Amino acid sequence: MTTIEGPPLRILTVCTHNRTRSVMMAAMLESMLRERLGSDGVQVRSGGFGPEGLPAIHDAVEAMRRRDLDVSGHRSHQVTVDDLADADVVLTAERNHVVRVAALSPQVFGRAMTLPEFLDRAIAVERDADDPSGWIPLLTADRTASAYLSGATPEIVDPTGSAPRAFEAAVERLEAQCREAARLLAAGR
């Protein structure tokens, strides 16, 4: 485990209703990053665009339980401008989520990416060892709104309502992405 100095890395995960993908991303990223950075090294929150106060879906709760992560107390939260301002990086499930958070807070566009997009960009960008906290904006420095809206962006498929085997396969893909994201984020600290 790496001990970091300074403020914790603040991550916001976002999906449509904040009941499935963002909940699982937040739980897995927080667990994986706490192993690497310690409990004071990271803060992970989640949000969405649906109604407030609803529990995570049963399949998500069970998938996380199988991984020794408890999201049974989760209640959905609508993303706010303050949530976005407080995040060092916003990891979403879909391109439309990036668009929606940028509509709420345009300055967040440079820190908001789908999780698979983050992975693609983080692997491709060489981080500045002299300023490890400043590498996240480098990931999207060449991205324009018009290009983003017209281009293809990798996304996380919503497994809600899938058969159990298909849901678990989707969670396994998400878990692998979270593991790689945690490695890259911890290395960037």
Description:
The chain has 189 residues and is α/β, with parallel strands linked by helices. The chain contains 7 helices and 4 strands, in the order E-H-E-H-H-E-H-E-H-H-H. It has helices spanning 21-37, 58-65, 81-85, 95-104, 115-124, 145-150, 164-187; strands at 9-14, 42-47, 89-92, 112-114. A 4-stranded parallel beta sheet has the order 2-1-3-4, with helices on both faces. The longest helix is centred in the last third of the chain and has 24 residues, at 164-187. It is globular, with a radius of gyration of 16 Å.
What is CATH's topology name? Rossmann fold
DSSP strand tally: 4
The ordered string of helix (H) and strand (E) elements is: EHEHHEHEHHH
- By CATH reckoning, the class would read Alpha Beta
Residue stretches low in confidence (pLDDT < 50, at least 5 long) are none
**Average pLDDT for all residues:** 92
Helix count, per DSSP?
Answer: 7
Largest pleated sheet: 4 strands, parallel
